[in-house]
């Protein structure tokens, strides 16, 4: 039976030097757009990756854009799920055309909805003197989700901004969406976007190829739980956001 590991990347298979430090046996795992070092695998992360590399098909499941994923240095050689599930890459690096067609059906409604939510966050940030930067993340011309960070890395101020948004907005504006807050990163995803949807689609595709599969989900964030629960088993790093919530 084919074993498949659906694995989140950042803070799961590797992390920045700021988050986990850097030792002499760390391995560079990702770079910034200018080529400078970004993420590192410590020795245990290297051993964990090698264990699965030798015994399973590893499929990344990440919030990274296509460009950011291409700067990951781990030797993946199969499918990849990026953009919080908004894009699926084939083993040759091209976008899965069937999945892309499904996603594009939401283009107009997503653009309008994200712009409305961004305007609300800007108003709240102004009232709370919350110094944020924001962007609507896209792949090509397809809007996907809203990303907000605090310019001074004040995670508490960012959390208060999100709480005010929850209280102020009509429930129908966000209850079917996904609000993902982890440290100094906040992502607001429309109802149709999510890693779990892409994992389910890809599972069906892989089962058609391999037959019944043993699937394992691996992630650190509470936003990863939805896709991890699609799998037969799941794994989370000690001290991850998931671990702290248990």
Question: What is the secondary structure topology, with strand pairs?
Answer:
Blueprint: E1 2-7, E2 15-16, H1 17-20, E3 27-31, E4 37-41, H2 43-55, E5 57-60, H3 66-69, E6 80-82, E7 87-89, H4 97-104, H5 107-127, E8 132-139, E9 142-150, H6 155-168, H7 171-174, E10 178-182, E11 185-189, H8 195-210, E12 213-218, H9 225-228, E13 233-235, H10 241-245
Parallel strand pairs: 1-5, 1-12, 12-13
Antiparallel strand pairs: 2-4, 3-4, 6-7, 8-9, 9-11, 10-11
Describe this structure in words.
This protein is of the alpha/beta class and about 250 residues long. The chain folds into 2 domains: about 1-85 and about 195-245, Rossmann fold (3-Layer(aba) Sandwich), CATH 3.40.50; about 105-190, Gyrase A, domain 2. About 40% of the residues lie in helices and about 25% in strands. The chain is built from 10 helices and 13 strands. The protein has a 4-stranded parallel β-sheet with strand order 5-1-12-13, with helices on both faces. It has a 4-stranded antiparallel β-sheet with strand order 8-9-11-10. Strands 2-4-3 form a 3-stranded antiparallel β-sheet. The longest helix is centred in the middle third of the chain and has 21 residues, at about 105-125. The mean pLDDT is about 90.
Could you write a compact summary of the structure shown?
This protein has 246 residues and is an alpha/beta fold. It is built from 10 helices and 13 strands.
Question: Main traits of this protein?
Answer:
alpha/beta; Rossmann fold; Gyrase A, domain 2; 38% helix; globular; SPP-like_dom; HAD_sf; TPP-like; hydrolase activity; hydrolase
